[in-house]
Design brief:
alpha+beta; 2 helices; four-stranded antiparallel β-sheet; single chain; Alpha-Beta Plaits; 27% helix
């Protein structure tokens, strides 16, 4: 999953909400795009039966977070 964040502080909310939905974070990287914009790339594993679309919707509603790309492959 690739996200764009307004601040790196939003990373805490992203990981908190993802783990609440049962996601297991297996890798993460970030880079600064410009003043006030960061790109975050995360590899997540969801439990069987979980909806990747729900995770995308929840994370996309967080303040300062834009979902750029996601994949539901394992």
């Amino acid at each position: 999953m690739r996200l764009e964040l307004a601040t790196l502080d939003a990373l805490g909310s992203v990981t908190e909400h993802a783990t609440r939905l049962g996601a297991e974070l297996s890798a993460i990287s970030s880079r600064k795009l410009g003043k006030g914009r960061y790109e975050l790339e995360m590899s997540l594993r969801l439990p069987s039966g979980s909806s990747p679309q729900r995770l995308v919707a929840v994370l996309g509603r967080l303040p300062g977070v834009d979902v750029i790309a996601s994949s539901d492959s394992n």
